[in-house]
Amino acid sequence: MPVSEQPRTCRHPLDSPKPHGADEDEATLDVRTRRTRARLREAVLRLASERPVEEISVAELVRAARINRTTFYKHAESPVTLLEQVLYADLDRIRTAWLADIAAAELSAREVWERASGALVAHLEDRDALYTAGLAGRRSASLNRLLVDHFTASVRALLDQDPRRVPDGEGTASWRAEAHSRFLAHGEAGLVEAWLSLPRPRDPRLFVSAAKSALAPWLDGPSHADTPAH
What we know:
Blueprint: H1 24-48, H2 58-65, H3 69-75, H4 79-104, H5 109-126, H6 128-135, H7 141-161, H8 173-196, H9 204-213
């Protein structure tokens, strides 16, 4: 989960709404753009399911997507950033649902964490070949960093949403929020790697159970009554 004051999402400039009155050429271009993105998505997911994304070249990716290099660089800087965009589309939805469940306060923090862990393991199962190729045996540092960055930003978003949850301790509340977000994110990424190290078929209940057991006490609710000054 990169770290910032706002959760990280991956967006492309062409995702912005088109102005009213767009002509037919613009509409055609939009169709072509969406088709290109679909080809890139399929290509990077397939290739990264065969071996770590760091081993995939731009030349190989553009051949698989049936586009040219110039078109590729309009959408991504590298195969790694392209994969990040594709995976974050799913991971962002998991984060949004997690934060919404916490804000609704209809379930306990532990129940919300269990639900989010179930959504995460479903994502891992859906992309099983990709995550196995990259994380089993720690073969892809980029894929590990992608998850850590996303998890970090998700926890930080929660702490920004409710600063009372920031654990007490030395240093500013902002630094403590950053430190605890990173600490939890690395643990969550380690849990993903441990689960992927199991032989197939893997039991998703093991992942959810371990995630529940590892839930940090300060995520259960505010650690003190007063909101700390940043």
